[in-house]
């Protein structure tokens, strides 16, 4: 499905943010499916009449089954500067996750050392540092409950692969639909109930605060949590 104006959350001469749909891949992979960065390039080329395509740099990534805010750079200068913003952890990322089990503590900080198996695309958490591991930290808080499902807000301090999914699973709270990390069944839509809700940072060129916010997907389930 092509990107249209309704998918755009933020845009200026330097950056463009879109609301990623669950199931979209950010960059090309072995599946051969059209990636999100190519869809956004086509949108820019059409919108601004650029027949030779448009520059687009990938600033960060979201797992394929995850929805929400994702940011791209429209110039090489903006890409370089935003890469530095993410590397220096000068960006605040907020996610919402729906789980079936209530966490024992309603808020807390989780620290693990994660090891990724690239062949199986699975991450294993460890409580202490092990060979090949990356330190991963997040804070979480329980927002509320709806019909036996619990909404958790997560602020990751690091940006590791599958981090939120595997760290919430260590609490006994696998994300709804995420059968890779302990939920009993997967989603027929290939999605999980993890949504990149907000992205906050200082604009690398304008030096102004930027706060990009993505509404929850409308799928008959997710949007029921919108007003929490």
UniProtKB/TrEMBL annotation:
This is 23S rRNA pseudouridine1911/1915/1917 synthase. It holds the Pfam family PseudoU_synth_2. GO terms for molecular function: catalytic activity, acting on RNA; pseudouridine synthase activity; RNA binding. It comes from the Bacteria. GO terms for biological process: pseudouridine synthesis; RNA processing. Keywords: Isomerase. Belongs to the pseudouridine synthase RluA family. Residues 14-169 form the Pseudouridine synthase RsuA/RluA-like domain. It comes from Pedobacter steynii.
